[in-house]
Amino acid sequence: MDDRVAQHAVLPFTENETPQQTGQHSMTLVDTRTPDPKRFIPGATGDWEIVIGMEVHAQVTSHSKLFSGASTSFGAEPNANVSLVDAAMPGMLPVINEECVRQAVRTGLGLKAEINKRSVFDRKNYFYPDLPQGYQISQYKQPIVGEGKVTISVGPDRSGGFEDVEIGIERLHLEQDAGKSMHDQHPTMSYVDLNRSGVALMEIVSKPDMRSADEAKAYLTKLRTILRYLGTCDGNMDEGSMRADVNVSVRQPGGAFGTRCEIKNVNSIRFVGQAIEYEARRQIAILEDGGKIDQETRLFDPGKGETRSMRSKEEAHDYRYFPDPDLLPLEFDQSFIDEMAQHLPELPDEKKARLMGELGLSAYDASVLVSEKALADYFEQVAAGRDGKAAANWVINDLMAVLNRTGKTIEETPVSPAQLGAIIDLIREGVISGKIAKDLFEIVISEGGDPRQLVETRGLKQVTDTGAIEKAVDEIIAANPDKVAQAKAKPTLAGWFVGQVMKATGGKAAPATVNELVKAKLGVE
């Protein structure tokens, strides 16, 4: 389907279906978690607990905007992607983009959430220079997606363990983005770029279930991973296609919810953690000094590592919500939902469970590998028909180290899955040792080429001739009589001889053969 073609507001639906009411566009402050002392923050007057909820704005992956056919391409010249609808010219009417609806439903299914077969678009009224209409088309009491959940893993703790925590999703609704005010183009005036005006957003509202900055970062990371697996948002926070409003309050453990402050438009997972840490400390200091927290919207300054006041926090009634008279209710039937469900990809949690069950990977290794869809796809190509644990070790410890060192992504990797798989095969076949494999890996990184041919042309095959290895062992033992005596007294020192033999043979001697001969010659177990 070409989603540039405007779609009708009403999709197929079954009459007499009752829409589910999901409540107002605000977090339902219901405690679902038992206080956890591990997450308490010590203060001057006792322990404190952070309560965190998040509203994530995720740009829908779609060629055109939510209510117009204008392009959503990133990086265009200012005001290049603006239709008459986006500019709010008189007489222009919005028409829903069906692809955006499909993406929202797919996201809801990926979040294990209820899909509401009937939803309503409302006008959220407020003035801002880059909001041409003077209102935002959003959803209020009847969003397209209801309650769901995201499971995060927090850790490792001191013993290396991870804790799974379930974070509730309150709702997901569709809305249009505003434009962008540009304050650095002129000394006395601000410019307005409407390229983002009308771009489709999914606002994903969590329940206030997070209790630490680490949990908040893990939640945002997991949510971005799910969206990328689904293909419903690219998650590029540096481009503004995903950003978070973070609601933070503090309370004494187990007490009533405190007054929350909203930290607006945080565009980095690292900044989310820093903002929460600072804001929690700020609120605790005020309360311990006998003050009270004002409900307000704040901004995070990454340079100073602190939040600052932006404006007092609005309540829902301040926006004067009412159903948009230009848009019919959005209705569809169960078959529409079922079609979306049938074509969902394997999501991170399911993939992690499969890798652990089929390949015997640890929870940690599987979590790392499924953290990015491209990384998981790469690993599965390497592991196909091979030892999964060996493949995981090479991808996580060797390949990712190279990517981190060079600043490349997995899509830019200098080693293809076929090349890495060939190196693993050469080790398994006994053609090369583990040490030679490391050298071969570096050659492939810097020069490329077929690993098998490189082994042949560069003479990298490991030495399996027992006679040649035995000669090297004899020479090392003869040259180090003092070490021989020490090894006989302390057998673990036999490893020193193994290392010397490997060094003398340029790492080409078969390690198992070297180890066996050294122990036999020294008479140790």
Task: Describe the overall structure.
Helix content is 36%, strand content 18%. Helix 5 (348-359) crosses helix 6. It has 15 helices and 16 strands. The protein has helices at residues 98-110, 213-230, 269-288, 334-342, 348-359, 363-370, 373-383, 388-406, 417-428, 434-447, 451-457, 466-479, 481-489, 494-504, 511-522, and strands at residues 41-43, 46-59, 118-119, 122-125, 135-138, 148-154, 163-176, 180-182, 191-193, 200-206, 242-251, 261-266, 296-301, 306-312, 322-323, 330-331. The strands form 4 sheets. Strands 1, 2, 6, 7, 10, 11, 12, 13 and 14 form a 9-stranded mixed sheet that branches. Strands 5-4-15 form a 3-stranded antiparallel sheet, with no helix packed on it. The protein has 525 residues and is α+β, with helices and mostly antiparallel strands. Strand 6 (148-154) and strand 7 form a beta hairpin. The radius of gyration is 30 Å and the shape is elongated. The model is unreliable at 1-27 (pLDDT under 50).
